[in-house]
Amino acid sequence: MSAGVLIRRLGPFQVLKTGSPLSLRSGGKAEQLLSCLALHPHIGIHRETLVERIWPETSLGPAIQCLNTLTHSLKMQLADALGGQPPIVHSESHYALNLDGGVRVDVLEFESAIETGHRLHSEGSTGAAIKSYERAVDLYRGDLTPAPDISALLERERLRAACLTTLARLADTHFGVAAYDRALETALRLLAIDPCREDAHRMVMRSYVRLGARAQALRQYKLCRIILDGEFAVAPEPATERLFRLIRTDPGQV
């Protein structure tokens, strides 16, 4: 059982208390508050910004009272999983998640796992790097839950790009250690998120060839052409065309 409190923003919003989902009303004020704070876990958010987002039609005084009531309610629900500490702390008029007290955010753990994977890979610890990359992509249960501001939209796209890049690197790493089935699985997972990624199509083609499934590799090329034509009305990149010709004429060199 996981200790502490984990706020999940990758995929459907969820709060886990010692590993078990906490019952919160979907789209309710508690979810809005924790979701907003989880977008800025290190720096927190000013009180007036919070109440404007969560209680936009309430005057400042009553809205602040609502905020104080809500933070107290969340303390009552979660403090026992945090050694008695509150999940939200505030200094003067600034509110933030109590990261030091045991509150965790999946976005932070996702990015930390990627950074650790990069470091381990650069040190030559390939097996440990693979485990760290796999932890990162497992944490990515879906795109960042929607929020009504541009900064959240930009963050959503940044994290999505980080996941896709990590999946591509993980597939390359698996291929480099001759784990062709894992490389194939990872590249297909990448394509399930972004079917237009030609590097992933090429990895699928190469993996199929190494697994002895040349015909499937050729079919993957055809699928790649269909997707790109339907989405953008463009042909595959020269690198994809070269790989296709090599698979057709000399698959032993793939």
UniProtKB/TrEMBL annotation:
Gene3D superfamilies: Tetratricopeptide repeat domain (1.25.40.10), Winged helix-like DNA-binding domain superfamily/Winged helix DNA-binding domain (1.10.10.10). Residues 105-248 form the Bacterial transcriptional activator domain. This is Bacterial transcriptional activator domain-containing protein. GO terms for biological process: regulation of DNA-templated transcription. InterPro entries: AfsR-DnrI-RedD_regulator (IPR051677), BTAD (IPR005158), Sig_transdc_resp-reg_C-effctor (IPR016032), TPR-like_helical_dom_sf (IPR011990), WH-like_DNA-bd_sf (IPR036388). It comes from the Bacteria. GO terms for molecular function: DNA binding. Coiled coil: none annotated. PANTHER family: TRANSCRIPTIONAL REGULATOR REDD-RELATED. It holds the Pfam family BTAD.
